[in-house]
Structures are given as structure tokens and as C-alpha cells.
Amino acid sequence: MKNNQSSIFKLGSLTLAISSILGSSLLSTAAIAQQSEDEVIEEVVATGTRLKGTATAVMQERQNQAFVADIMGADQIARTGDGDAAAALRRVTGLTLVDGKFIYVRGLGERYSSTQLNGMTVPSPDPTRSVVPLDLFPSSIIESLNVQKSFSPNMPGHFGGGNVNIRTKSIPTEFVFSVSGGAGWNSENSNDGFFYEGGSDDWTGRDDGTRALPSIIASNLAASGSDGFEGDSSRTLAQTQEILNSFNWDIGPESKSAEPDFNLGATLGNRYTFDDDSVLGFLATVSYSNEWSITEEQLGNDIGGGQDNPRFTKYRDMISTEQNVRWSGMFNVGYELNSNHKIELVNMMLHDMRDRLRDGEYFDDSESTIGVEEFSRMDIIFEEREMVSSQLKGTHNFLDIANGVFFDWYAGTSRASREAPDIMEVTYQLFYDDAGALELERIDDTSGTNLNRQYQSLQDESDTYGFNISTPFYGDGYDIEIKAGFDYYEKTRDAVNIDLAIRHFGINDEFKVGNRLYDIFSEENINNPDFYASSTGSSLFQDNTGEGDKYSAASKLTAGYLMVDAFIDKKWRLSGGARWEEFQQISVPFVEHSNEFAAETDEIADSIYNEDDILPSFALTYIASDEMQYRFNISQTLIRPDLRDISTTFFIDPLTEFLVRGSPSLVETELMNIDVRWEWYMSQGNNVSVALFYKDMENPIEMVQFDGGEGVPQLLTANGEEGELYGVEVEFLHDLSFISDSMSNFFISGNMTISDSEVTIGSGDQDSLFSQQAREAYGGTITATITNDQRRLVGHSEWVANLQLGWDSDNGEHSASLVYNSFGERIIAPGVRGFEDGIENPFHSLDFVYTYYPDFNTTVKLKFQNILNEDKEIEQEGLLLRRETVGTGISASVSYDF
């Protein structure tokens, strides 16, 4: 079983260093034109109308794309008042936002979409999802968001719903220096929450070591190996006391009133032109925000009682108090020579901290007796997510070679990390007398209950490089460009979860009384021998860490493409070609608390995922006039399992809090995509488009619910047999001058997507891929049957709607927008044992944003969010599987350009 870690580098054809990576595409000739358009966007916004300037420039870029895409510019994002990329993207046609972080494109889950930063793939700091969480990207660094919905050969072949490309701000066209600040409040924060002391550096978004795994425990784990936290029988009481004292016990919690939200930002940039017409420029931007939220949450678990009397056998009703600290920094420097050669270096650091404490009622059908013996539960999670990226890219136009040769290249390195020290959960018993008065409260003495503490760490690293080259050919009635390119991307991951517990029965009863941890685990109590149920305290500790809680994983992608883009008689545009990709991936579990592989070398070699594919794509555009065009696209793409998908290690889904595990035998999903779209671009930026889309999927990757060994709900990542998705999208923008000339300063924009989907799991076929994966995961312990073998795709909404009513004053000093967003019901947790699927209900978001420009340099913004005061709800069988209050947010900000 013991293997040197370096042997992983020699397994099969996969030669990977478990070190860093980043990813993907490049600037093409179209991108060169796009960059010049981006400069136009900045100037139009400064001097023209705020409504039409951005809309016209963005629509022009979309019109010139060979493949179906939707684009949102920086000013459009500012107008809706969205603070990050995730919130902004929910305004794009056919996109829905899940968990505040992840985008579903055309109803397909986040695994069916890919995310790029300036055309390059970036690693994810979220261990539960395959794509980078988009709330990491503040809107202050975003120039535009490009969502391409039809596949082109110069894009990654991992393509389902679409590709999201976050394009950050580049070097400015002139000197820029601006500062901004703002404050906000939420209606839910008028109530007090419960919180704890934390570390002295929490305001920076970093833990100062208060929550870190104590060094004495780390050394004990390293020395004991698979014996774990319990240690051996020779441990003395003094050693037990020393270990227990090393934990952070400065945890109440105590009553907490929320502080107002605030944010700060600054941007500095300039551009220098030299005598030889070369240009050197830079842009630096920083931002910081600190936000508090107090919400009410309800969480159901383990549905039972049969179809006649469904009920959750476990549920929680609690108050959640959360602090979020976000900061970012970006520094770009670029050099241009004669407008034909440009090199740019983009450096970026994004950091996000979430510190949440939940406290409230916990009901267990097998233990609770209302009014006699009840329970409460408190849990804490503190996590830091960070992404650091450096991207170097260049574009070169060699106009004196043939008809011109255009070459662009890129290289990037990134790392993403997640640190979650001291995730904690503790349960209390509450006893009442006959009159209903609380008689006694203590930490839960029920058999098998513990105070749990977990220490999690994840490090993703990635490297990427590639290039594109193209050359045009001209003739009578035709204009053809031939493009070719190469992409390389590799990513490695190291993840660790240490799961420790303090057994309640290891503490004598008289010391368990109370509901504040700093009282129960005071230094005085810990140092008192009577605190312990045994003379040495040997029964106090338990180690729940298992094989695979520590794992290393790696993936590598090598790709090349060839495509042709041709204009015929200025009426027809034909674009297409093929992409070749070779993909390799492996995930290797370790024995707990060691550097030993939990599998033999041959087993590891057999587990290597190795596929190569050729992916064709064809797009046809008929240009009826300067204003109107028709598009058709057909392509073949695929969705590959992620590193987490092929791991057998359990993790907690943040939306349902179910346990989730992967399947080592997962295979890729193959998709055929068809898109048809009609676009009409009118004067003054008015436009309308209608699109039809269809996707046929073989072996779709889905989440399927099971009951675990003790009835705990679990989600298995597995392959279904087949699936399909189809629908229609409508998008429009128009001023209201057609009603009356007095309404010309008003505009209305919006989009609507109506679609349907169906997936067949194959649970009734013992020879299906799903059944094989279920047997591998659970063997003979499967105790539940899937309710709906045929159903909609998990996460798919049958409709998505956005609507915006905007106004600009005649003098340009005022603007306002009323913005609406909503989505239809979507499956979150597939049902079992005859119970229906867990459904997330529609969330109707209505926001109002008012902006005042008192002078050319100053911007004042007032924002009201969730005016309807909607709550987020997930239901199953008419019961609340999850409910979270959101509240109405009010914020104001001021920015000044020097």
C-alpha cells in the first residue's frame, strides 16, 4: 500500500505534476476588432446618452459574432446595480443564478457550463462545484461579460449550456483616477443574531490562527497515523487536558446586532504615447467590502411517514448570522507598437471570507418530545476563498506577409484555495417541567452524540498556454479567413479534511450544564480531573477522518483546432471547423493522516480517465440587411467529469446540506447542439431577437438521491441513459417613443426563455451505466428506489424572465431603472421511495436603482433590492426542505473621477 507520491507522475500516459495550472482560449482577429470596440464603448459612455451608448456598442459586437452569443457591458452592469459577475449574469437571456454563485445556462446545471477569465480557464476554490464561483469577481473589475451559447472550434470542448467569458478592464485610453465608497442595510438586520468572538484579523477576511488546527493535535495525528485522534492507551490525563485546552473555546455565542455594510474602491490608470507611436499603459484597481446579514433559516431532512402523511423526521429552525468580507486587487500593464503589436500582463487577486453561525431549534423524530425533551443545535463555518492569477497575452498583425497574418498567444498561471478551519457543530438538550418552564439545558447526552470539529483545506493550481494564427483570402464576392490554434491546460488539486469529535459521554454530567461553550469548556473545568468520565480522559476523543478525506488529483488537456470563416456576396457567412482534444484525469485518495496511497499502484493506473475526441461545429448566417440576420448552428460537444465527480469522498452540498459523493466510473456526456436565431438591430440601439435551441445528451451526468446506511439523504453523481433539452428565447430593447415623444427618455428591455427537458436515469435496468455505478457506490445497502426515472434535469427551470424599465433625464444628470428577475420551479433534490422531487420555488426579485450625476466627475447611486421581500424556498411534498429569508436591502454609494 505504501507508495512514493512521485510514482503518480509515471502512471500510464498521464504525466502530471501535482502543481498549478490555468486555462484556455485566445484573442483572434475578431478579438482585435473587439478590443477597438471596447475603446469605443468607453468614449460613448463618457459623452453620449447612458442608455444608447452602451447598448449600441454591445449589440454591434454581438451582431458581428459568427456564433450565437449574449454580451453585457460594464455600464449595463452598473445600471442594474449588481455587485459581482454572478448577480449580473442572471440578467442575461436564459441564465439563472443558483446559491448566489453559480450560473445555469438554458436550464443546464453549472457543470454544463464553463467559465473563462479573459479567454483563459481558471481553477475553482469551491470543493463542491466544478466551475469557479462567479461571486468572486466584483463588478468593478469587469469590462464585459460574454456568454457564448453555440460552440465554436476555438473554444473548450467542455460545452453544454454555454461558455461565460469574464473580460476584465484593460489599460485606459486616457488618465483615470477614481475613488468610491458606499454603505448599506438590510431589513432582516434589524433583528439581533448570535455570533462569537473570532480572530482579531477577521475584518481583513483572514483568520489570524485562532481557528487553526492546534499544533499539538497536528503532531499527534502525524505520529499516530491511522490510529487517529483517539491516540493510544498510554495517553495521560495531563496530555488529554493539554489537547483539550489547545482548542479555541472563546465561543458563546452571544447576542449580536448587525453593523451597516460598507465598501471602498479606487482605480488609477494612465496611457503614455511616445515619438515612435508606441504606447505604454497601466491600470490598477482595488476594492473592499464588509457585509453582515441576519436571516431566518429552516432546514428539513430525512423525509418519512409515507405518502399519506409525509413529514421530515429531522428539521432545524434557526437564526443565521453571517459576515462577508471581500477584497480584490488588479494591476494591468500593456505595451502597443504601431497598433499592430500589443502585449499585456494582467495580475489579479480575489479574496472572499464567509463567517456564519447558526443557532436554533433542532427536532429529531426519534429523540424529541415537544414540551418535555427538546434540542437545539449550533454550527459555525468560517471559510476563505482566494484566487490569484497572472495572465500574459499578446496580439501581432503582420500586414506585409501575404494578405496579412494575425497571431495571438497567451500564457497564464493561477492558483485557487479554500481554507475552512474549525467547522463546528454541537447539539444541546432542553428539559421542561410539567408547567412548560425550562428546567435544564446541557450539551446533548444522547448516545453517540459528539461535538464535531472539521479542518478543511483545498489548493488548486493551474498553468495554461496557447496560440491562434489566421490569414485572410480575398476575391470577387468572397472574403475568407482560415484560423488554427493550440491550447494546453493542466490543473492539480490537493485537498484535506480532518474530522474530529469530542464525545459528550466522556464528560461527567455536572459539567455539561449550560449552552455556552466557553463556560462548559472553561480552562477551570478542563483542568479539573472531575470533568472527565474516565481517570485519563481516554474516552473523550474520536477521529471520524476516513480514507479519501485527503486526496490529490490532476487533469490535463491538450487541444488543437482548424476553422474557416467566410463571407459570400456580403449575404452569407459560413463558419466552422473541428476541434481535437485529449483529456486525462486522475484522483488518488490517501490513508487518513498520512502520505500513503489508499490504493495499489495498479488500481491507481486503472483509474486514470483518458479520452480524446474530435468535435465539429458549423455556423451559417444569412445577412438579410444591415439590420437583420438569421443564424443556424450545429455542433457536437461533451461534458467531462470533474475531479470531485470521480472521487468517492463525501462532501456536503451547500444548498440541501445532503451528503454527496462521486463515481470513479463516470463517463463523459456527449451532446449534439442545434441553435437557430433571428436578430433585428434597429436604429438607436433598439433590437429584438428570437432563438430556438435543442440539445440531445447521451450519458448525462446527474445527481441522484439515495438513503445512506442510517437513512441520511445522500446524492450520488452518476450517468443517466439519455436526456434532451429544447426551448425558445426572446430578447428585446426599445425606447418608448412609439407611445409618445414625451416617453422617448424611457426604455424597456427584457428577455424570456421557455424550455423543457427530460432525462432518463435507467434505474430499472440492472445493466445500465447508472445501476453499475450505484452498485459500486452502495453495494447491497441501497434502501430506496428512485421515484421518477424520467424527469426534468436537476436545476432546470421551465421559464426564466428578466424585465427592465429605464429612464434617462434630458440633461443627462439622472437615470433610474426598475429591474425584475425570476425563474420557474426547478428540481434540487430528486425524490426517492415514492416521494416527489425537492423543488426550488420561483424567486421574484424586484430592484430599483437611481443614479445622479451632479457634475461630470461625480456619481451618486441609491439602490433598493428585493423590494417584494421574497424568501428563498425549497419544498418537497408540500414541506419546507429549506427556507431562507432575504430581506430588502438599501444601499447608497458615491464615486468621484479626478
Automatic annotation (TrEMBL):
Membrane-crossing residue ranges in chain numbering: none
All copies of domain TonB-dependent receptor plug, residue ranges: 66-157
Pfam families: Plug, TonB_dep_Rec_b-barrel
SUPFAM superfamilies assigned to the protein according to its UniProt record, in alphabetical order: Porins
UniProt-recorded name of the protein: TonB-dependent receptor
Compartments, record wording: Cell outer membrane
PANTHER family attached to this UniProt entry: PLUG DOMAIN-CONTAINING PROTEIN, TONB-DEPENDENT RECEPTOR
Main location: membrane
Keyword set, alphabetical order: Cell outer membrane, Membrane, Receptor, Signal, TonB box
GO CC terms, sorted: cell outer membrane
Domain TonB-dependent receptor-like beta-barrel: 433-852
Homology family: Belongs to the TonB-dependent receptor family.
Signal peptide positions on this chain: 1-33
